[in-house]
Amino acid sequence: MSSRRSRSRQSGASRISDDQIADLVSKLQQLIPEIRTRHSDKVSASKVLQETCNYIRSLHKEVDDLSDRLSALLESTDGDSAQAAIIRSLLM
């Protein structure tokens, strides 16, 4: 057993049981579209974590892209218009 895992098991209060980890991995599996749409119910925890990281990266990229598009839209509108105010509120 690794020293990190040994320390974790010794701390008691901060210990997460294997059942809790399995439950959390199962919940993540239900949230990630790439995994949720597969027909196989059995996916390894490492694959779930890997797909979760990939999904979070894609969400960050999507947010950045949308922010860039809103910024470009804001530049093309009258700065004092109601539309500009809405776009600015979305960028905050």
Folded structure, characterized:
There is one protein chain. The protein is an all-alpha fold and 92 residues long. The chain is 74% helix and 0% strand. The protein has five helices and no strands. The radius of gyration is 21 Å and the shape is elongated. The termini are far apart. One of its GO terms (biological process) is regulation of growth. One of its GO terms (molecular function) is protein dimerization activity. This is Transcription factor PRE6-like.
**Strand proportion:** under 5%
Order of helix and strand elements from N to C terminus: HHHHH
What assembly state would you assign to the polypeptide chains in this entry?
single chain
Average of pLDDT: 84
| CA(first)-CA(last) distance | 47 Å
DSSP strand tally: 0
Biggest sheet: strands, sense, closure? none
Q: What is the percent of helical residues? A: over 70%
**Sheet/helix structural class:** mainly alpha
Count the DSSP helices.
5
Uncertain parts: none
Q: Estimate the global geometry from the Cα principal axes.
A: elongated
Report Rg: 21 Å
